[in-house]
User: Fold FMN hydroxy acid dehydrogenase domain-containing protein from Trichoderma harzianum.
Amino acid sequence: MTHSIKTSSEKCLTPTTPTLPSGPLPSGRCISENPFGTQTTGNTQSSTPANPAEIEKLAKEKLSQGGWYYSSCNAGISWTHLSNRQAFYRHRIVPRMLVDTNQRDTATEIFGHRVSAPIGFAPIGINRIYHPTGELSVAKVAQELNLAYCLSSAGSYSIEDVAKANGSGPRFFQLYQSPDDELCISMLQRAFDNGFDACMLTTDTWSLGWRHNDIFTGNYAFYHDHGAGDLGLQDPVFQKRLKEAGIDPAKNPKEAGAKWIDENIWHGRAMTWEKMKWTMAQWKRISGGRPFCLKGIQNVEDAKKAVELGVDGIVVSNHAGRQVDGGISSLDALEKIVDAVGDKIYIMFDSGVRSAADAFKALAIGAKFVFIGRLWVWGLSIAGEHGVRHVLKSLLAEFDILMEVGGFVSIDEIDRSCIDSLPNSSNLIAEHSAI
Assistant:
């Protein structure tokens, strides 16, 4: 497959239209013009709320108990999750007035791809627990909106099918390190052959964090026939492993899926820097030197080590507070890491983002790109492809309007001068927040 730089799709991203009209992109205005025009039409898009708290509430009503628990559970008593949300309240945007924002631009570049905004789809596994179309709908919408999409190796559709759904869209592959080296190489090869041209190795999850509701209810979604093994079932090396174990996936799909998850995703074997170097070398060999990134970095020393070893990028992330309870917020970690290595490595961010203002603050602190997760999961849960499209178009429109009324013409203007920050010790919001 040919890997080339992708450019803007030149499509108008109005947040209320169910389809994307063709035509040239009016600079700056298109994704936010007339956001009130079709709110009373009663179609799927306009009947889905735009407020993230309401989106979350509706998703809870739509999902089964197991689906809701898996999407919403945090580690322990949710202190890290709360910390993620509180951190955004510590930073306040300082608008600029009398600035000509009529010709503004939200576009940016990530790993050679020109995308509509510095906002992308974080990798989340087993999407079919939320909607039967799962990753296929998410990848399709990402391509339509010209946003970066990252596929989880715990996904519920094959690499090949997701690539087809994503078309010419910019896409990356998130890897949970399998202890099976032959299988790991096979996965990386399949990903690159299907147009996933950056690899993101997750460093914080080889076992799942202690999540009370999941544990109390025995809610291990990967054992309940939601396509848990489908991404792996298409792999020739894993097919060989199934044959060696005497498992026929056609007759025993749950057993095959459990083998995929238990031995290659949540296998309980901690990874080391030495193994990371091996994985990076394999990806570089397979891809001809395309970017290799580490996801889950929260410690300054780990960020420095990544720079020392030649890693291309890091995602500052605490897995949305789902792994370590009582941990540092992702945004606070971002601030420390940017101060230490911000000029030496490409820094991305996720965990706790609920709005355009949240994304803006992460960019102002020093992230070059922001990934979102739960927002699009809720949209998928509510209305499948239409729900994902609605949530992302609303977020893009909100981001565009924020730049317009805040006095920012381009992404390059967003830096720490754009925010005013309270001391780290400030008590900012109540213990239990709606979002």
